[in-house]
């Protein structure tokens, strides 16, 4: 896991589902720095190798086009536009497709991760935090789950174990178009019959 100043383990350690300051921030529609860091994840470097390969392919194709259009000894002896296009196609068939495949293989996963991280940043900064009375329930042989009514509220990847089973006022981050969510943020333990935190 790449890091930009703190590991996922450090952020999970700093995360507390029932911390009063965390609960206060979430109740005000904000996300704490530890929550933000864990949800959006570490900084992801651009796919430098992929960009280098694509630039190299573009230069190679441009050079082939210029060479084919300005000489009479290439694939098309007549040169001109037709000669340039034919030489560019020849280079792509012989070598260019290999360079393109290598660029996509090295770049697509990183581009996807960077795109997902940008969507996560938008979701976190949207301030769309919702709260309602819910439960933390134990799952035999598995991890505890947070439930509001019959709806499961997922946990951010890398977050710590949920607090003990019981009734809680749950706070979670609402999803944005294409972004992550819903994601549980905090849990305020209470007796639902005397709750002073009605669903919002």
Characterization of the model:
The protein has 200 residues and is of the alpha+beta class. It has 2 domains: 100 residues, Beta Barrel (OB fold (Dihydrolipoamide Acetyltransferase, E2P)), CATH 2.40.50; 74 residues. Strands 3-2-1-4-5 form a 5-stranded antiparallel β-sheet, with helices on one face. A hairpin with a 7-residue loop joins β1 and β2. α1 runs antiparallel to α3 and α4 packs antiparallel against α5. It is rod-shaped and about 85 Å long. The N terminus and C terminus are likely disordered. Keywords: Membrane, Transmembrane, Transmembrane helix.
Provide the descriptors you would attach to this structure in a database record.
transmembrane helix, membrane, 200 residues, five-stranded antiparallel sheet, 2 domains, single chain, transmembrane, OB fold (Dihydrolipoamide Acetyltransferase, E2P), rod-shaped, alpha+beta
Note the topology:
Blueprint: H1 8-14, H2 20-27, H3 33-40, H4 48-70, H5 80-125, E1 129-137, E2 145-148, E3 151-153, E4 166-173, E5 183-189
Antiparallel strand pairs: 1-2, 1-4, 2-3, 4-5
Helix pairs in contact: 1-3, 4-5
Largest sheet: 5 strands, antiparallel
Tell me the helix content: 40-55%
Strand order of the largest sheet: 3-2-1-4-5
Uncertain regions: pLDDT < 50 for 5+ in a row? 1-12, 192-200
What is Rg? 27 Å
Question: Distance between the terminal alpha carbons, to the nearest Å?
Answer: 36 Å
Under CATH, the topology of the largest domain can be stated as OB fold (Dihydrolipoamide Acetyltransferase, E2P)
Question: What is the number of helices?
Answer: 5
| Apparent shape | rod-shaped
Question: SSE string, helix = H, strand = E?
Answer: HHHHHEEEEE
Tell me the count of domains.
2
State the secondary-structure class: alpha+beta
CATH class of the largest domain: Mainly Beta
Mean pLDDT, nearest integer?
82
User: Total strand count, please?
Assistant: 5
CATH architecture of the largest domain: Beta Barrel
Strand content bin: 15-25%
